[in-house]
């Protein structure tokens, strides 16, 4: 795909929104393998877990039970008691909004290169048959720190980098605490997953901006996918819903709880838990009235690390479901281009 066509995708959304036009054909979903685009399926069975209770003798058992039952079915829950204040989370959202409100030329200074995902832009174009998502994104690697590409980090608003850095550090702690709790919920040693992530685990943050859309019934904010990560932590819009998760073949809405974080498992945790815990398929729908922003942080093992199902989760009843792999990110990307389900290609 040449540069002209790639940039025209992002311009098109803004122009169509400004002129209240119908989405152009490149955005229209023609076949939905995973069910029609409904804006209001039922609310999902996603529990709210209070992380501060992990250190309470009295309550930890109940919280770990909730974690276990949600991860073995839906693969998703929300967390409170994560240690971040409401005002801090609002600040994180605000800097994202301020960035997206900048004039297009200003945002383009941080544009991603045509064949790269890091930076600001719309969908990376990988095939002529591709249907585009109704979304602009700013995608930045935050860990390991020496791999940050600071030229892609916004200069406006001026406090963007400082806030993102602080948010990333806090999310790192939350992710570590959750990894240990996930291990405990399976009666494993606390570091069973963290050891596979390694000290140089990757964290990438994606700021998603979904403009209102005149035909939410015809486009996806983000098309159905599973995350390639180990663990994804999502800060949803304070007010506007849009995320849906598929459980047992049906779509469910994830409710907005303004100061909770949504936790989704990614494919690499499904591998490490030998398929006991699920990496849920999810999608985002748009609406006619309101724009939506969300901030997703994906943590995954160091690409060079070999990861695989934890030994204690393999037995005669549950043989090893996945083989050991390195660089799952690259496998996932290749499958995406070929239209294959990445997890199916790494079965034992
Ligand atoms: O916007 C959302 O709620 C989810 C976005 C998402 O699934 C992603 O960025 O991978
Ligand atoms: Fe996702």
Short overview:
With 348 residues, the protein is α+β, with helices and mostly antiparallel strands.
Rg of Cα set = 20 Å
The largest sheet, given as strand count, sense and whether it forms a barrel, is: 8 strands, mixed
**Secondary-structure class:** alpha+beta
pLDDT < 50 stretches = 1-7
Fraction in helix: 25-40%
Average pLDDT, rounded to a whole number, is 93
Question: Strand-and-helix sequence, N→C?
Answer: HEHEHHEEHHEEEEEEHEEHH
Number of strands: 12
Q: Kindly, what is the distance between the CA atoms of the first and last residues, rounded to a whole number of angstroms?
A: 35 Å
Instruction: Quote the beta fraction.
Output: 15-25%
The DSSP helix count reads 9
CATH architect. name: Sandwich
Q: What's the CATH topology name?
A: Jelly Rolls
Count of the separate structural domains: 1
The CATH class: Mainly Beta
The coarse silhouette is: globular
Strand order of the largest sheet: 1-2-10-7-12-5-4-3
Describe this structure in words.
One of its GO terms (molecular function) is oxidoreductase activity. InterPro entries: DIOX_N, IPNS-like_FE2OG_OXY, IPNS-like_sf, Oxoglu/Fe-dep_dioxygenase_dom, Plant_2OG-oxidoreductases. This is Fe2OG dioxygenase domain-containing protein. With 348 residues, the chain is α+β, with helices and mostly antiparallel strands. The protein has one domain: Jelly Rolls, CATH 2.60.120.330. The protein has nine helices and twelve strands. The strands form two sheets. An eight-stranded mixed beta sheet has the order 1-2-10-7-12-5-4-3. Strands 6-11-8-9 form a four-stranded antiparallel beta sheet, with no helix packed on it. Strand 1, helix 2 and strand 2 form a beta-alpha-beta unit. Helix 2 crosses helix 5 and helix 3 crosses helix 5. The longest helix is centred in the middle third of the chain and has 26 residues. 40% of the residues are buried. The N terminus is likely disordered. Fe (ii) ion (FE2) binds next to loops.
């Amino acid at each position: 795909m040449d540069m002209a066509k790639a940039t025209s995708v992002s311009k098109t959304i803004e122009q169509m929104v400004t002129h209240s036009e119908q989405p152009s054909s490149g955005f229209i979903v023609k076949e939905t393998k995973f069910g029609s685009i409904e804006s209001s399926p039922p609310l999902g069975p996603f529990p709210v877990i209070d992380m501060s209770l992990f250190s309470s003798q009295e309550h930890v058992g109940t919280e770990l039970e909730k974690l276990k039952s949600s991860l073995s079915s839906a693969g998703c829950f929300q967390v409170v008691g994560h240690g971040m204040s409401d005002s801090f989370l609002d600040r994180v959202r605000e800097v994202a909004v301020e960035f997206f409100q900048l004039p297009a030329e200003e945002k383009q200074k941080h544009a991603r290169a045509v064949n790269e995902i890091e930076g600001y832009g719309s969908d990376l174009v990988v095939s002529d048959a591709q249907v585009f998502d109704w979304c602009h994104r700013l995608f930045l690697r935050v860990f390991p720190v020496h791999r940050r590409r600071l030229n892609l980090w916004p200069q406006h608003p001026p406090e963007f980098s400082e806030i993102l850095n602080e948010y990333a550090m806090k999310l790192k702690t939350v992710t570590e605490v959750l990894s240990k709790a996930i291990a405990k919920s399976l009666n494993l040693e606390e570091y069973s997953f963290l050891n596979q992530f390694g000290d140089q685990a990757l964290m990438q943050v994606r700021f998603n901006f979904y403009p209102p859309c005149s035909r939410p019934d015809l486009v996806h904010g983000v098309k159905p996918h599973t995350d390639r990560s180990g663990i994804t932590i999502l800060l949803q819009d304070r007010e506007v819903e849009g995320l849906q998760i598929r459980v047992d073949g049906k779509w469910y809405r994830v409710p907005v709880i303004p100061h909770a974080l949504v936790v989704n498992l990614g494919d690499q945790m499904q591998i490490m838990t030998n398929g006991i815990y699920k990496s849920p398929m999810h999608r985002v729908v748009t609406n006619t009235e309101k724009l939506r922003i969300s901030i997703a942080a994906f943590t995954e093992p160091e690409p060079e690390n070999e990861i695989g199902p934890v030994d204690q989760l393999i037995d005669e009843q549950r043989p090893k479901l996945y083989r050991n792999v390195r660089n799952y990110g690259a496998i996932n990307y290749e499958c995406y281009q070929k239209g294959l389900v990445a997890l199916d290609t790494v079965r034992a």
